[in-house]
Amino acid sequence: MSNGPIVLIQYDGRFIMKVILSRKGFDSSYGGSPSVILPSGQLLSFPIPHTIGSLRYSDITKTTDYTVAELITSLTSKVKPDDLCHLDPDLVSSSLPRQVGWKPLFGQCGAAAAHLHGQHVQVGDLFLFFGWFRRTRRTIRGIEWDTSDPGRHIIYGYLEIGQILPVDAASPVPEWASYHPHTFPELRRAPHNVLYIARDRLSGTPSVPGAGTLRFHEDLALTIEGKNRTAWKLPAFFSAVPITYHSASSWQHGHFRAASRGQEFVVGESAAVAEWARSLVMRSARIPS
Question: What pLDDT is recorded for position 15?
Fold first, then answer.
């Protein structure tokens, strides 16, 4: 499958990718606990519980120091290893057995997908996936939450769009993508159902995959240390560009107050924002061996 042509907004002779801050993984409503920062610095986002398909937490293979099933058994009573889950975005090849041709992908539908379409999100734009994360520690009892850490919003993964594939009841999908929940009948019937398929490589960086997870460092933390997790420390140049679901009043007392609701925060075209996002990915991406 070709990545297709890249058509981006152009300023002063340069093409600028849009950045989407995309909220994913466990939260207080879905899953009821944070996702984890492992003692090694690995970030693992827990897929939210789901009611369709057949994928269970116990089916996800080991991509960090622990399996998802081991971590949820040790850290939460809200879900069980045999519960169904929604692995989306699906960013790591080794998470599941794959068919030939597999690429990282992310599905969206309903109002969130309509919002992305309305903001002209297109091939070449970059999702930065963030969620609620908390540190863990190893003890003689096993892996436990670090009680000194209340949890923060942290960027844990990314996907540069290589193809946008609408999926309705009659749409063909690549065989390698047929396992994905957004190809199932229940979501094919949803309005605006779509798959975002990753590029092979991050634009301009042949050594970095077009999608994947990130290894934790403090620059990935959105939340200001010691504050509510919606109090973000975005660079000052963000204040000059629009961010959907937010307004000028979102900037308060020298920081950005992120909306508590909404999945997809689309940042207006900005060379500074695009370079900030690409730099985060290039410094933090976990490169498959």
Answer: 67
Q: Mean pLDDT over all residues of the chain?
A: 90
Q: What are phi and psi of 69, to 5 degrees?
A: -60, -40
For the segment 135-155, the average pLDDT, to the nearest whole number, is 93
pLDDT tens digits for 230-259? 999 999 999 999 999 999 999 988 899 999
